[in-house]
Amino acid sequence: MPQKSPVENKESIYILGIESSCDDTAAAVLKDGKIISNIVANQKIHEEYGGVVPELASRAHQQNIVPVVDMALKKAGISPEKLSGIAFTEGPGLLGSLLVGVSFAKSLSMAWNIPLLPVHHMKAHILAHFIEEDSMKLPEFPFLALTISGGHTQIVRVNDYFDMEVLGETLDDAVGEAFDKSAKIMGLPYPGGPLIDKYAQKGDPKRFPFPKPKVAGMNFSFSGLKTSILYFLQKKVKENPDFIKENIEDLSASIQYTIINILMDKLKLAVKETGINRIAIGGGVSANSGIRNALLEQQEKGNWEVYIPKFEFTTDNAAMIAIVGYHKYLQGQTGRLDLVPKARMKF
User: Fold this and answer.
1) N or C: which end of the chain has fewer CB within 10 A?
2) In terms of DSSP H, where are the helices of the chain?
3) Which residues of 204-237 are buried (b: 16+ CB within 10 A; e: fewer)?
C-alpha cells in the first residue's frame, strides 16, 4: 500500500515525534510547528547505579513507549489518520534504546500508512529553538549553536535548517560528563551536574582555581580538568577528611566557573572568526544557571544576541524531534522502512 505523500495538501500538518536515544522515553505531537502535547517518561532506576545502564534503559523503553505515545495522541486530541508524519530519533545514542524507538516508529508507519521522518538527535537540540511558542523568540540564520550535553560538546554554525557545520567539538569528555564526574569525585549522587549548579550558587567561584586546558581552535577538552580536580581533592582530603563536606559550595562554584570560562572562551573565538554574534544553546547542560547567566551577561553588554530554550526543551524530549520532522516534511525529506538506528552519526 503506498504511503501518503509528504507534499499532500492538508489544512494542518500534524507530526508525531518519538525520542528514545538514552534513558527518557518521549512522545510529542506538533500542529503546524506548535506543541499540542509533549510527554516524557523518566527512568529513575539508573540513579542507584551512578549512571545510565544501557540494558536497563532499553528494557524500560519497551515498557514505556506504548503508553507514552498513546498519552501524547490522547492529550493532543487527534486520531492516527490525522497525522502527516512520524518523526523519530535515528541516532546518535544508545543502540538498544534507539532500536526500541526506531522499530516502534517503523511499525506505526506501516500500520498507519504515514511517512517516516528520521532525525539526528543533536541537530534536534539546535532546532528546538524553532518550536513556535509565544514566549520563544526564533533565531535568524546564520547563528552559532553551542550544544552541550552528557555526551556532546560542539560549536555549530547554523546556516539553515539542514545546513550546519561543526566548528569545534570535544576531543575527549563532554561537558556534561565533566560535571557529573566532578560531582562523583565529591561523593554527590547521580546525576551530579544539577547538584553542582545548586551548590555553586552559594559558593565563591574564585576560591579554588583550576587549570584551563590549552586546546587549539574551537575544540574542547575536559579530561585534564577532571584529573586536576581528582588530584586536588585527593591531596586535600588526605590533609582533612572533611574537606569536601566543609567546602562543597566553594568547590562547586570553582568547578562550574572553570567549565563556564572554557565554554565562553571558545564561543568568543567563534564569534570573532565568523563575525556571527547570534548565539543559541541546546542540550541538557544548557539548563545550567551559570552558563545561562554568562550568556545573558554578554547580551546585556550588547556583544551577543542570545537564544536560550525553555527548560523543558533542554533535556531529551520529543518536541524537538517533532519540529525537525515538521521541517523535513515541508521539504519532502522522508525516510525508508529499511533504515537502521545508528549509535554514532556524522553531524
Assistant:
1) N
2) 54-76, 95-112, 121-127, 175-185, 193-200, 223-239, 243-246, 248-274, 289-300, 318-330
3) ebeebebeeeebeebbbbbebbbeebeebbeebe
Q: What angle do CA 244, 250, 256 make, to 5 degrees?
A: 105
Residue ranges of domains in the chain, CATH in brackets? 14-130+315-330 (3.30.420.40), 143-308 (3.30.420.40)
Residue 49's contacts (CB-CB under 8 Å, 6 or more residues apart) are: 56, 190
The candidate with the shortest Cα–Cα distance to 16, out of 327, 326, 309, is: 326
d(CA 66, CA 59): 13
For the chain, the C-alpha Rg in angstroms (whole number) is 21
Q: 98 near 343, Cβ under 8 Å?
A: yes
43 close to 97: Cβ distance less than 8 angstroms: no
Can you tell me the mean pLDDT for 77-95?
A: 95
Q: Average pLDDT for residues 21-38, to the nearest whole number?
A: 94
Q: Kindly tell me if the per-residue pLDDT of 58 is higher than 90.
A: no
Q: How would you label 161-190 residue by residue, b for 16+ Cβ within 10 Å and e otherwise? A: beebebbbbbebbbbbbbbbbbbbbbebeb
Statement: residue 7 has pLDDT above 50: no
pLDDT-derived band at 45 (thresholds 50, 70, 90) equals low
The three-class DSSP label of residue 32 is coil
| Structure confidence at residue 47 (pLDDT) | 63
Report the predicted TM-score, pTM, of the whole model to 2 decimal places: 0.91
Bigger pLDDT: 223 vs 46: 223
